[in-house]
Amino acid sequence: MNDKDDNFKLDQSAQALFKQLEGIDDTYRVDESGASQSSLIDLLNQQTKLLDHYRKLLADATCLFAGIIKSSSSTSTSRDIDHKIQAFLATLKKIAEFPEFNRKIYCRLRGQQYTSDQSGSETYDYELSFNNILLDCQMAQIIEEREKSQGKGLYTKLMDAFQSLSSMNIFNFSIDTGAGGEEDYRKLELNLRLLIKFYKNADQEGFVVLNEYGQPSVNLTLLAAMNKVKPVSLQNLVDKVKPSILGPSPDKGLALFATVYDAILASMNRRKDLKKIPIEVNNAQLLMENLHTDPERTTVVVQISRLVLAKYGSSPRMASEVINSINSAGYVNMRPEVMGSRLSKASDFLELAEQTDNQEDLQSEALHNIEEGLDHLPDEMYDNMSVKGSEASTFNIKGQETKFLLHDKILDFLSFFIRRSSIKKKVQDIANKNVWFDDDDYAVIAKDFTISKDDAVKLISLLRDCFDFNGNFRRSFFEKNIQGFVSCGSKVFEFLWHYLKELPLRNDRVSFLNALQTLVAHLEQPKVALDILLSDIFDRSAKYVNFSDRNAFILATALLCHGKDQYSRRSHIELTPEDVLQTKDELNLETIPAVQEFFDLHHDNIIQKFTLITERLLKASAKENFAENEMQPRFLLYLIREMVIFFSLIGGKSAHAIIRGVIVEFGDPSSAYYKEMKNKENLRHSLQLLQIAARSLLRFAELEDMGLLGKVVSNKDAFVQLYDEPDPLNHVQRVMENIDKDAQNAWQSGKLHRS
C-alpha cells in the first residue's frame, strides 16, 4: 500500500453519499481516473474507489496474516515476523476506519468457483468479508481492471495468500478487533505469536490442547494460553465435557453446541471466567452459520456437524467441503465443473448418515438444503448434464465428459431439475401449436408446483388458451381464467412471470403486463411475488438490462399497493400512475419490511443495476439511429421512472440517496446528457422523470432537499433554451411550476424535518 493509497480521501458530497448508502458496493467499470459524463455516475464511482480502497486493505491484511502463519514453517527471522505483525495490526486499524465497522473480519473456503483455468483451482476459492464488503478472486480481478496502477498484482498476491492458507490447512478464520483500543490490539498481537507457536509444532506437549476427537485444537490451545490457564486443566475440562456431547446419551443442554470448544465458550460467556480469543481458526461454528435459518432445525444441524467432524476432524478441508455440499448456499454461483464433485461429497454424507440412529432426520435436513440449492441454479447449469442409472455425467466447454456415482436420492433431484429445465423451454414456446406435453412433463410440472397432475394439465391448457393461432397473447382469455390460475397454487405467479415476461412482440408484452396487474390483486401472498420480481431484476449479473425490468417494477409497485384497489379502476397501464406517490396509509405495510430486507441483502446488485441503466441511457441518448428491438432513451427513462417510484415507496437511506442522484443528474440543463442528446423529443420524457423524482424526493420529507429542488426550478430558462425551437406545449414551465408547487405544499404542511 503506497502513500497515495493510505491518504485516500473523498470530497464532501461523495462522503455524504457514502454515509447514506451505508457501504453499498458499486462495481460499475470505469477507467483509472473515474471520470465520466454523468454527475451521478461520478459520485457512485468515487464510492467505488472508497470501497476498493477497503478491499485492498482487506487483501493486505489477509496476505500479511497468511505470511505470519506461514513463517512458523520457514526460516523467517524474528525481525521479519515482528515487522509483519506490526504491519498487520496497522492494516487492521485502517480497516477499522470504515464507517460503522462491525469489528469482525471473516475468511472462509467457498470452493464454488475456479480461481484459474486449471481444473481443481476451486480449492483456493476463499471469500473474505467484513460488514457488507466482500472480496474474492473474481473481485480482485475486477479491481485490477479498473485500477490499473494501484490495483496491479492484487489477484496474484491474494491467490498466493489463499494457497498458503490451504497449505496450512486453514479453511476459515475470524478476527475480532474488539473495541479498537490499544489493549485490544495487544491481545491480537499475542494471539498471532501464539498461532505461530502452535503451527511451528502442533504436537508440542504441555502447550497443545486436544479436542474431543483427539486432534490438536488451535482454538482450545490458544484459549488456554491467552487466559494463562494450564493446558492440562483445560484438557481435563474438555475430557469432562466430551461424553456429554459424543457419549451414548448426549446432554440435552448441550444440544446446540457442535463442539466442546463452543460449549466452553458459551459457559465462559455466562461466568466471565475466560476471555474469548480474538482470532479463531477452523471454527466449526463458522461452517454451520449459513446451513439454515430455522431455529427449530438447529439441533439436527448440530448433529450433522458433529457427524462430519467425527469422520473428517483430522481433515479440516474435507469437513469444510462436506458441510458446503449439504448447504444450500454451497450451490450459489457455482461453476458447472464443480457440480459433480460437490454432489459426490453430499452423497458421501448421506451414506455416512445411514450408519446413525437418527438417519431420517439427518438425511432429511441435508436433502432439504441440497434440493433448495439445486432449485435456484440457472437452467443453463443442467443443459450439459444427464443421468443414466446410478451415474450422473457433465460435459465441460470442450465436450469432455465426467461421470459421478451419486446417492439415488440426489440422482432423483438431478433428474427432476434436468427435466424441468427442458420443460421450461417448451412452455416458453407454448404459443407454437406444434409444442406438446406428455405425461412425464405434466408429472414434473405437478411436482414443481405442488399440485395434482390433473391441475398441471389444466394449467397448461389455460396458458395455451391465452394465445391465438398466430401466437399473439390474448388478454381477455387470460383474465377470464384468472381464478383458474390462482387455484393452481402460490407458485403460479412465478410460473407465468418467468415463462412469459419476454414475449417477442411489444404489444404482447404490454398486454401481458396489464393482465398480470389484474392477477396480482388476487394473490394472497404478495411478499412471495415481490421476492420473485426483485430477485429477477437484481440477482442477475449487472451486465444485462431487459425489457421485462420495467414491467417488473410496475408489478412490484402494484404489489406494494396490493389490496387497495390502486389499479382495478384502470384497464390499460404502461406506466405506474403518479398518484401512487400520494400514497402513505394505503400501502400494504406487510410487504415493506420484506422489500427493505431484500435491499439490505442486495445493495451491491441494486447499485450495479442502477448504474448500468444510467450508462445505457447516456449512450443511447447520444445516438441517432437504433437497431431493431434496441433499447431507446424513452424506454430507459421510463425504466428509471419506475425504479424511482418504487424506491420512494419503500423508503430508506439508500433509496433517498439514489433519488437525490437522479435529480442531480436530470435537473442540470448544462450536463453532458442534455448537450449530447440527439433527439429533442427525449427532453419531454427527461423532464417527466425529473418531476416524478422531485415528487418522490418529497416523500422523504427532508428539509435539506428543498435547496436542491429550488436550484432545479431556478434552471427553468436554461431548460427552455435546450429546445431547438420554442416549446409548443410549455412543458418546461409546467414541470417547474409543479415541482415548486409540490415543494411549497410540503413546506406549508409542516411535514419537512431535518435528517
What gyration radius follows from the Cα positions, in whole Å? 29 Å
Proportion of beta-strand residues? 5-15%
Number of helices: 33
Oligomer: single chain
Overall SS class: mainly alpha
Structural domains: how many? 4
Strand order of the largest sheet: 3-2-1-4-7
Number of DSSP strands? 10
> What is the percent of helical residues?
55-70%
Low-confidence stretches: 1-35, 566-570
Q: Explain this structure to me?
A:
By secondary structure, the protein is mostly helical. The chain has 4 domains: 3-178, no CATH class; 201-281; 291-422, no CATH class; 599-755. Helices cover 57% and strands 5% of the residues. The chain contains 33 helices and 10 strands. A hairpin with a 2-residue loop joins strand 8 (385-388) and strand 9 (391-395). Helix 23 (526-538) runs antiparallel to helix 24 and helix 24 packs parallel to helix 27 (633-650). The radius of gyration is 29 Å and the shape is globular. The protein starts with a helix and ends in a 6-residue tail after the last helix.
